[in-house]
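Contributing new records

If you add data, match the layout below exactly. Sequence lines come first and carry their own label; structure lines follow with theirs. Keep one chain per record. Anything else will be rejected by the validation script.
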Amino acid sequence: MHFLLPGQWAKPLLAAASLLLLTEFTVAVGASFSSLEARASNTSSQQFYWIDVEPTENLVWHPCYQPLRRECARLLVPLDHLDQSNSSSKTAAIALIRVPSPYTNSSFNSTNGTDPRYRGPILFNPGGPGGGGVDFINEAGDFFATIIGPEFDIVGFDPRGVQRSTPKIQFWDAPGHGEREVWNSDSSLGFIRGGPGDSFRNSTGETGNSLEWTWAYARTSNLQAKARGGDWLGYMTTEQTSYDMLSIVNAYGQEKLMYWGISYGTVLGATFASLFPDKFERIILDGVVDSDNYYSTLWNNSVIDTPKTMDIFFESCHAAGESACPFWAPSPSLIKANLTRIYQELIDNPIPYSNGTSYGFVDYPRVRGQVFLSLYSPYTSWFSLAQALRDLGSPQRDPTRMWEIMATPIFHCSCSGSTCDDKETREQDLEAPNMEARTGISCSDGVDIPDDVASARIYYEDFSSQSEWANGWAQLHIACAGWPKVKKGFQGPVGANTSSPMLFIGNTADPATSIVSARMMVARFPGSRLLTLDTPGHSSFGVISNCTHTHVREYFVSGNLPAEGTVCNSDIAPFPGLLGSNSTASSVDPPTGGAGVLRRVDGEEEDEARRVRDAGYALGKVWEGYSTSLLRRRR
């Protein structure tokens, strides 16, 4: 078992003896999950086709993604679960994947295990909205099984409208055919220039798109949604997905849901618990979104703690020392000043780049976007970010490392002429991520917003006065300007007296979901508990913490919650040579060769603890690639 440096990530293989074996981390993080998706399609084209799987009202599992131990299914559900008259025969098909428990029935067409140790399925949603659970669990499922235990099936699903689940939210030709790539060719990653919180608002160079351009882009995209969206458009809501999850549980032969939701997945989980307070056994909400803010289409309190996360980057880099943090300077404030200098130089003088296989330019919006992306997974990404910033800030202004971690694959048409209708292309079209799914779900969920540019300007000015990161986040609200009038589903109130307690997990320096939101949301569900991670990063997925994993496993297995006020820390530090905050050790070990540094407290760790810790590190690498891919297609 081995791990290489950050900036690369793992393709996991599970041996028959359930030993965790990892191949080399071979793909740069900036393109990692896109490569994952391509690899999944390549694997399916050789051995398994989703388009060959007939949707059924019962779960019929098929072996898939060999040689990984995976099973896939497509579950037929009503398009409108709320149609009590059953007057509509329209349906949706939900794509699922599972890493089956070794204790489940070995028959592909059986859903119930016969071994008394089998506990049933745990469903996962990795966020978005618009994120696909099939790809994520295909890549991370073995690591979850190691962390949680063998008693459970690890189940991922593409929410309705997303990737393999049909009807698919899609207003352009399928990815790879050219239409959406031309429309989405802007390289600013959605950054808006100007506003009270923009430190470079008076710069004359390129710092992002104008507010007016952002609004016009959204309005035009939503005209496209109106023109090409089907009559299913009003049913792509979190409420309907909650009913889908209940349908999955029932098709499994179970009565109650077990679930782990991250980021937007916490909105989905909180909505499910509000609608069905007696229909779940375990729910973990991790990286908690303020559901009221989400359903109000505001998106303006997510980045409250982003400056805190940035400060930890500066502080931990300085504390690690010059030999451990490549971007080191004599004080945290000087590290911050050096980053600001790099930003200003890029505004004044972007760097063209080509390495023969990919090309483009390194500018302020791209680099600031990559810095923000790294805040999601500090323990697996900050070292490589520091290397890239060191090179970029040198007298030579070398952009090579930065390009490697931020570049996306060069677009090539996936087909031409008659090949656009062959089986391989149709399979790729079904599996491809659809960037419009986020807008399609969030704008259908939330209250309608004004569609005029003046209202967008007022919103942005107010948000920017509150946060310096508004210029990278406000487009999530503006994207709903002019969204087609559709049937609205559940919009609250979120909260309930539930038959089982929920476990909330919140990081004290989460760049995308504030700990304040976690504290507010846990109060909505009496008897539930908040587990605090005193760490940077978005959700527990980016943190290597045996303390956290122990509480997660205990909750899923026995239902026991952590004691009130429990705080966990990370077992590694973002940079080599820096001990974790609770360490009493005088020596450290890396995670089986990784760049982070593990605390040693009482001699050698037990094999199980080391195995879980290594699974946590590998999960962090998958999470880094997944979150990067999802954020890069936010529009």
